[in-house]
Amino acid sequence: MKIALLTPNKSTYTETFIQNHIDYLPFEKIVVYGGAFPYLMTNEEPSLTYRRWYKYKTIVRDKFGIKTEAFKAHLLKKHLQKHDVDLVFAEYLNTGAEVQEVCKELKIPLVAIALGYEISQYRIIEQYESMYQSLFQYAKKIIVVSNHMKKNLLALHCPENKIVYSPASPSEDFFELQPTFLSKQILAVGRFVNKKAPELTIKAFSKVFLECPEATLVMAGDGPLLEACKMLVEELKLQEAVVFKGRITREEHKQLLAASYMFVQHSRVAENGDSEGTPVAILEASAAGLPVVSTLHAGIPDVIRNNETGFLVKENDVDEMANKMIELLHNKELAIQMGSEGKIYIMENFTLEKHISIIGQAINN
């Protein structure tokens, strides 16, 4: 079987789960990218001359009242036909919604995976509501990566028998890490965006620092809230205790995990409704053997067992987050135990092999 994997972005640097699908789904595949409606392939991008010719053709046909299909739909159709694609696998639900008409025209089955913002942001849901309804009817399966997302899909009237739960997973090499717990380094890895509330992590750490002045907070990632967070650190006079790493490589990520004492992330529902699926960074930290302090948000309770492999607090509860971080810093034995339990739990329930196997079965069926 040959599948076309459709993804909005050419670079999947920040989208580990998509790169895993590209690398490990056991099918012959082509990758098509180019925004919400993917239409481009590496080494097969249309020339400027071809683009101009198609635009001219459209103008001429329009004058004679002859409908011409959109350029992106035209190119996607060409790719699917040229490569004899048997099934389209759409990363993100709105991607599946955008390309469903092309799939219908070519009678190609469609499977879509929901990954987060596209079934939580109010604006996106409103924009795609009618397209989602037709997608639910045409798609063979809709895959979700958290139980919370399954509830969202059911609320959007997706037939339950089409929903497949396949939680995200860390890459296997994260299980090989063995944190030393020699320092009081607290680690946060993720984009600086509203739903991850990095400013609340900093505010919680400011309370931790008063109790444990030897503690440090390392924050890796970039995003629109980064500069505001740097200003907050200055305002709180934490410049010597908080380190901003910016965007990091996979190896740097693993080195930071191995050198850290715990992992923290204060995920919450953003003002626009945006929320997490199952944060891969949390899975990776737990797989590495670190205790996790996070929130009772979206898919996080699926992967972190509260009071066993980490602590989960209510969204926006900075004081309780600080208390749990302090509790772990004062109890190294508990931190090590939670980290060990977390590694075992993730290894038994959230492996990449299992994630890929479930998706593979959904496609084959």
TrEMBL record:
Gene3D superfamilies (UniProt xref): Glycogen Phosphorylase B
GO molecular function: glycosyltransferase activity
DNA-binding as UniProt keyword: no
Keyword annotations: Transferase
Transmembrane helix found in the keyword field: no
Highest taxon of source: Bacteria
Xref: InterPro entries: Glyco_trans_1 (IPR001296)
One Pfam family hit: Glycos_transf_1
Residue ranges occupied by any Glycosyl transferase family domain in the UniProt entry: 184-343
UniProt-listed PANTHER family: GLYCOSYLTRANSFERASE
Protein name: Glycosyltransferase family 4 protein
Lineage: Bacteria, Pseudomonadati, Bacteroidota, Flavobacteriia, Flavobacteriales
